[in-house]
Write a structure and sequence with these properties.
Layout (H helix, E strand, L loop, with lengths): L3 H20 L21 E2 L6 E11 L6 E6 L18 E7 L13 E8 L7 E8 L12
Parallel strand pairs: 4-6
Antiparallel strand pairs: 1-2, 2-3, 2-5, 3-4, 5-6
């Protein structure tokens, strides 16, 4: 049986996903999303053998939480986001909370920091989504948080 925190995280993630899917009439337009090492790269989802997907994204920290706790991020859109059936449905930019892996970053994070991060989504795991890597970006980094 999952812990109450894991159940709440899963519920919030599903609610965010439902809202994102409702807001999208179709897959969003392609946008330049990048990590600090590869500016202006197209976001890429990598599907490991276990069926999980890994997304390289950028966003702004809303609430950094503590390592091992939740982090709240206003992220750019995810054009290649796949639902639990594996269908590419995309996701608009929005604020969501994810489990922050304890070793995701060695840097201290603050609200309004601009970051590049790796989001891993595994529909068969608890929790379904987690942030596994975070890199602080320069304060001058421009994000596209306008929507789809």
């Amino acid at each position: 049986m999952a812990s109450p925190i894991a159940q709440a995280t899963r519920s919030w993630f599903r609610l965010g996903l439902v809202i994102a899917l409702a807001a999208c009439a179709g897959p969003p337009a392609e946008q330049a999303v990048a990590l600090a090492e590869a500016p202006a790269a197209e976001p890429q989802a990598v599907e490991p053998a276990n069926g999980a997907r890994s997304y390289e994204l950028r966003g702004q920290v809303i609430d950094p939480g503590a390592p091992g706790d939740e982090i709240s991020i206003f992220h750019e859109s995810i054009p290649d986001f796949a639902n639990s059936s594996g269908e590419i449905v995309g996701m608009s930019s929005m604020t969501m909370s994810f489990l922050r892996e304890p070793d995701a970053t060695t840097e201290e994070l603050n609200a309004l920091d601009t970051i590049a991060f790796t989001l891993e989504v595994d529909w068969h795991a608890e929790p379904e989504a987690r942030v596994t890597k975070i890199v602080k970006l320069p304060d001058t980094t421009e994000l596209d948080l306008g929507g789809s």
